[in-house]
Design a protein that fits this description.
The chain is of the alpha/beta class. It folds into two domains: 270 residues, Aldehyde Dehydrogenase, Chain A, domain 1 (3-Layer(aba) Sandwich); 177 residues, Aldehyde Dehydrogenase, Chain A, domain 2 (3-Layer(aba) Sandwich).
Length: 474
């Protein structure tokens, strides 16, 4: 049993003010693999006070010196990438190869984007005669990160905050805290001044709420569910602090009849199932032009049935379990609801995969003949569940794609380059990828509507942590 009961506050590992043990569950076995402490408001107060004390000197530290420390952090993360991957695999069930090469590797990848993006920040610029625009760090920042991509989200918040000259208090998910604690060890080894980075474990209703309400926190940056994001927003309202939110998604994947159908469908299924479907930008609604719809359904069925579910400790190309009992129950309930509402089950379905009777494993599932009035088409499942919807023509594809409360990501497959660009500009989403194109390090990550506000990554992510001041001199 791993025991990690201490918090990282003011440059030291400290015990919580009051003991409050919490077991971390290995989702592959449903057994406790670690124990941490859940913090209280008094622990938050201590961490915020440390961050407040550290802010003036850190904000005044030359950018070049901040960059040196972050480059040192980058080297340490790369050296410990195997440990980070092992922690992620244990705490949230990502298969070990994926946990190292994709999950843990997000830290150095985002660092690259931020270190390039910071070069493009105009810290001071002329405005008019005798007037300049100055950009300054906003202050003490409260950072709340989720369990599904733990290192990814920590990097997307901590790195830009520190580059901007802010100090911070991090509350990682209590479900998947182990990788965050290793990250804190990396920060400590890198030699950041005490109080610049602080970590307090805890749950949302206690630690998250205390952070959101706290009068000495100038900004909250939250990633998680839309429901929880709204709670952070409401709690922050009394102190009128800045709030940035990266929330849910129900991303459309539009496949036109002229696309390379097999490549588009197989790629879409694989992307939907990646990380056991626990990604906010997963392409979970596959919209297929009607002339090729039946063929696409057959291709998706075969693709889903070829997805292997296995032990996250084993090497290989497979998916692991969902993160928790609560997530397992939610996904099972939505699959049952889809069947009850008349969606046609073509692959997977309720229950665990054959031969598995323990762990939060689920069957890769595909529903066809879905329409946007169905629950399965509107709610974010956060599991390996794909819905397929036919459409007739470009106008209907755009209408169906935009008929969602979310607007995080969207995907298009077509042989017509002009149509790809035309449709991309009509989609109400923060990120659109055409024909499987990737995204470079430092790109803006975020969405429209109930997918949140603000952007993470690169210079956009750094700008979220900056205030703008005009100085006019006679």
């Amino acid at each position: 049993m791993i025991e990690k009961r201490k918090f990282y506050i003011d440059g030291a590992w400290v015990s919580p003010r009051a003991a409050n043990d919490f077991e971390v569950i290995d989702p592959a076995t449903e057994e406790a693999c670690a124990v941490i402490s859940l913090g209280a408001k008094s622990d938050v107060d201590e961490a915020v006070a440390a961050a407040r004390r550290a802010f003036p000197s850190w904000a005044a530290t030359p950018l070049e010196s901040r960059i040196v420390l972050l480059e040192r952090l980058d080297a340490i993360m790369q050296r410990r990438i195997g440990e980070l991957g092992e922690a992620i695999s244990l705490e949230m069930g990502a298969p070990i190869d994926f946990a190292v090469s994709e999950q843990a590797a997000c830290g150095p990848w985002h660092m690259k984007g931020f270190l390039e993006g910071v070069k493009h920040i105009a810290w001071e610029e002329p405005f008019a005669e005798g007037q300049i625009i100055v950009r300054e760090p906003i202050g003490v920042c409260g950072l709340i990160t989720p369990w599904n991509w733990p290192v990814n989200q920590i990097a997307l918040k901590v790195i830009p905050a520190l580059l901007a000259g802010c100090t911070c208090v991090l509350k990682p998910s209590e479900i998947a805290p182990l990788s965050a604690l290793i990250f804190a060890e990396c920060i400590d080894e890198a030699g950041f001044p005490k109080g610049v980075f602080n970590l307090v474990n805890g749950d949302g209703p206690t630690v998250g709420e205390a952070m959101s309400h706290h009068p000495d926190i100038d900004m909250m940056s939250f990633t998680g569910s839309t429901r929880a994001g709204a709670q952070v927003f409401r709690a922050a309202a009394d102190t009128v602090k800045r709030v940035t939110l990266e929330l849910g998604g129900k991303s459309p994947n539009i496949i036109f009849a002229d696309a390379n159908l097999e490549k588009a469908v197989r790629g879409g299924v694989s992307h939907c199932m990646e990380n056991t479907g626990q990604s906010c930008n997963a392409p979970t609604r596959m919209l297929v032009e009607r002339p090729v719809y039946d063929e696409a359904v057959d291709l998706a069925k075969r693709a889903a049935e070829s997805v292997r579910v296995g032990n996250p400790r084993e090497h290989g190309d497979h998916i692991g379990p969902l993160v928790s009992q609560a997530q397992f129950d939610k996904v099972q309930g939505l699959i049952e609801t889809a069947i009850a509402e008349g969606a046609r089950l073509v692959a997977g379905g309720p229950g665990r995969p054959d031969g598995m009777n323990r762990g939060y494993f689920v069957r890769p599932t595909v529903f066809a003949d879905v329409h946007n009035g169905m629950t399965i088409a509107r709610e974010e499942v956060f599991g390996p569940v794909l819905v397929m919807i036919p459409f007739d023509g470009e106008e209907e594809a755009v209408a169906i794609a935009n008929d969602t409360p979310y607007g995080l990501a969207a995907y298009i497959s077509t042989a017509d380059a002009e149509r790809g660009q035309r449709v991309a500009r009509q989609l109400r989403a923060g990120m659109v990828r055409v024909n499987g194109a990737g995204l470079a390090a430092g790109h803006p990550f975020g969405g429209y509507k109930q997918s949140g506000n603000g952007r993470e990554g690169g210079r956009w992510g750094i700008e979220d942590f900056l205030e703008v001041k005009i100085v006019s001199t006679r």
